[in-house]
Amino acid sequence: MPRTEGMATTDDGARLWVASGGIGAELSLAHGGPGLWDYLEPLASLLEPFARVHRWDQRGSGRSDRIGPYTVDRFVADMDAVRAHLGVERWIAGGHSWGAVMALLYALRYPQRTLGVLYIAGSGLEWHKWKDLHQREFERRLGPERLQRFRDTTDPSESNRLRWSADYASFEVARPHVERMLAQGFSVNHDCNGAIGAEMDANSEAYFASLETLAVPVLIIQGGDDPRPLAACDSLETRLSTSSRVVLDEAGHFPWVERPKEFVSAVSKWLRAAKQQP
């Protein structure tokens, strides 16, 4: 089935860019950030033989309206507005990084509309406890010269180039993928990033209080060389009786880039089982 693009309108009038493609199980794929844009087309291309993949620019970013409010509640509601716009009754809620966290929150709020959760390189349930470890690993990976450049630069593109490059197992692997993101030409919405980040830090315990009630299957898939501590997801795995977890060696925060065959094998097998949910 060919890809389609359009604009979904939320109940408060915001217009969100949406793209869909592929065949099979209905799968949402929320990008990370918050405050970034959809960079997941390469991942969608890998999964479209197994799923009908739906992507969108979250409000405040990319091709969507740059308007608030920038709140967790609003972003989860926007995700359901995308579902309604597409005419999908139930889907697998999926996402990467912040998008994985949002997909999990969506499943908790809309269990009747969720077949499963594809949780790619998410930050766990209590990210505020792990930020310092992540920051130290980020600085170690950059090394003294790159770290000084990062601290000194006033060029947003160079700052993003250095920051995002540390998310891969090597800077050589990172280069074409980071340049692709930069070439999309969108700017990071720092207001959005700061507002939602602060809200998650303050309220994460309350947001995930009902986690044990989630009855749908959850696949947690991570790269073993993600600079974000893998242990941040340990409590998520422990509290979810329906979860399974895959860690791909020699892969970073974008595990489908460095281990595409292993990633697709694990996810496609899980998707086939998840779409059979009653």
Q: Give the N-terminus to C-terminus distance in angstroms.
A: 25 Å
CATH class: Alpha Beta
Cα-based radius of gyration, to the nearest Å: 18 Å
Using the alpha-carbon principal axes, give the shape: globular
CATH architecture: 3-Layer(aba) Sandwich
Helix count, DSSP H or I runs of 4 or more residues: 10
User: Looking at CATH, which topology would you report?
Assistant: Rossmann fold
| Quaternary structure of the protein | single chain
Going across the biggest sheet, name each strand in turn: 1-2-4-3-5-6-7-8
Structural class: alpha/beta
Spans of at least 5 consecutive residues with low confidence: none
Number of strands: 8
β-strand percent reads 15-25%
CATH homologous superfamily caption: Alpha/Beta hydrolase fold, catalytic domain
Q: How many domain regions?
A: 1
What is the element string, with H for helices and E for strands? EEEHEHEHEHHHHEHEHH
Give the fraction of residues assigned to helices: 40-55%
Largest sheet at a glance? 8 strands, mixed
State mean pLDDT (0 to 100 scale).
Answer: 96
